[in-house]
Amino acid sequence: MYKMKAIAINGTEDHAHVLLFLPSTITIAKAIQVVKGGSSHWVHQTFPEYHDFEWQKGYGAFSVSHFDLDKIIAYTKNQKKHHAVEDSKTEYLDLLNKHQIEYDEKYILE
Known about the structure:
two-stranded antiparallel ribbon, 4 helices, 110 residues, 42% helix
């Protein structure tokens, strides 16, 4: 329906990394809505004991070059090992700062 393609998905206890191919016909916001909504529905249907599961309100989305796909796929697959060294909030803030992206810290990883 939306013609998105999952390339790599992984995460830890407090966040997920989802590398998607998005066609030009779908916005990032719509893609996030579809992924969060569909996965929440699946969790609630499959694991009734997690009836309280919900995604946080926000998200971070970054575009990547197809030249970097192998590196990003490897990074996505290696989340547990990576976050044993650096927590997710520190990593996210470092990424925002590195790319000079303005943010309000009160909205970071709520």
